[in-house]
Amino acid sequence: MRRPVVAAGAAAGAVAAAALVVVGVPPAMSAGPVHIDAGGSGTVVAADGTTYTRSSGFDGGRDGTVPESPVEGRLGSEVLATTRVGMSGWSVDVPDGRYRVTLAMAEVWWTASGRRVFSATAEGERIFRDLDLYDVAGARTEVDRSIEVQVDDGRLDIGFTASRDLPIVSAIDVVPVDDATTEPTPTAVPTTTSPSATATEPAPTPTPSRPTSQPAVLAAAGDLVCDPADPSYDGGDGTSNACRQADVSDLLLADDGVDAFAALGDLQYSNGTPSAFRSAYHPTYGRILDRTIPVAGNHEYGTRDAAGYYGYFGARAGDPARGYYSRDLGSWHVVVLNTNCGEVGGCSSSSAQAAWLRADLAASDARCTVVLAHHPFRSSGEHGSTGGIAPLWRELYDGGADLVLVGHDHDYERFAPLDRSYDVVADGQGIRQFVVGTGGKGLRPFAGTVTGSRERQASAFGYLRLALGDGSYTWDFRDLPGSGYADSGTGTCR
Fold it and tell me: 3-state DSSP call for residue 386?
């Protein structure tokens, strides 16, 4: 019913044989330029005279070296032939300011187009999307891509996502914009090895930063990826009514306007094992890992201490002992709760999580707050409302939260704004909750209708798309083609 999904973890034989490197914390950086030899073992001088050094700042991946024949390009083969493959990101501590980021890459394994396709971002800004190095420059030839970004939190983050095979990079340059005029202008080096290669490939125009007045776009869905052992998994293709993770993630990936994806728990069935995250989650929703805000579900804790979940998402998922954290998105504050109460010391008003939540909400100066969790506070679905987390709802109401996004029940349900006792109130006076358990695993019928439910369906897979504006928001449920379901509207912050 759909094209086969290619596992992002399936690398060429030479890559698979490379040693796995355990990486450490991002390196500190001075105010000057930094030049990283992505797969090197020490310090090396490039062909253009620039000194490159090894970095410990990669998130995952392996080192690979290709000694058989030279790699052509500005930096020279000694830098370009040592690569980092399969990483999900790289970070470096920098003073706040504006930087030009350049990635130097070459296709050193494949000898045909379409075998490796991947994307990269810096500080959330797109450097490139679905780049095929061989299609651009042929084999063993340098391709450079650059972008200018603003850093305001003391750390520059680069993210990589795979569409086919694994991301690859040979070198990374981070140069303060004030110093950029002294650095060489990167371009793709001409090649004659591929008929599709062009004589010169200019660096793309950097994607402009989203204006602060423009709403940030948050997509959300939970209950995502089937266990590869599920009879409906069918090699990743799924069936008409189960295991649709590839189709929903394709739909999401095609939405160019999405700034972040809220993964609302039960992300990898049945027990969130490391191998299942690698083989099933990564080739589907892992393609937007760099934009994912993960939430721990009960199925993640099917593996002791949710080790597969925390191992896959790393620091992105917060402290593994807690699983609750917060961040900002545009002008909004984002709070992530861990509603697996027994795993984190409870969810009562006297719990550590509740105390953290009170302090976090009090410290935020954002007008609007969206909260992500797995278990629903209110639900008409099969599992129903989760009484044990009601104290957290009261904390959210008292702290001024506006939206709550949850999963767990495999359906879509929108509620009217509710007060701290779950009574319906006017728009702008309470918290509106959405249940979005439609990310792929399966759909289940409703058990009844609870007070405050305003819209619900259990027949269409998809995700919720929210535009988070200054003091208001819009919502739009995006369903798979042919489903014929729609729900959209607007709301006001408190």
Answer: coil
Question: Can you read off the two tokens belonging to residue 445?
Answer: 């019928």
What pTM was computed for the model?
Answer: 0.62
Shared domain check, 352 and 284? yes
Amino acid at 494: R
Q: Flag whether 2 is in a domain.
A: no
284 occurs within a structural domain: yes
Q: Compute CA distances 213 → 209, 471, 490, whole Å.
A: 11, 11, 17
Same domain, yes or no, for 148 and 294?
no
User: How far is 314 from 317, CA to CA, in rounded Å?
Assistant: 6
What lies within 8 Å, CB to CB, of 272 at 6+ separation is 297, 299, 300, 301, 302, 303, 306, 308, 309
Burial degree of 101 (CB within 10 A; 0-12, 13-18, 19+): buried
Does a structural domain hold residue 236? yes
Residues 98 and 237 grouped into a single domain: no
pLDDT, one tens digit per residue, over 404-434 is 999 999 999 999 999 999 999 999 999 999 9
| Residue 232 sits in the same domain as residue 310 | yes
Helix spans in 138-279 (H):
245-253, 274-276
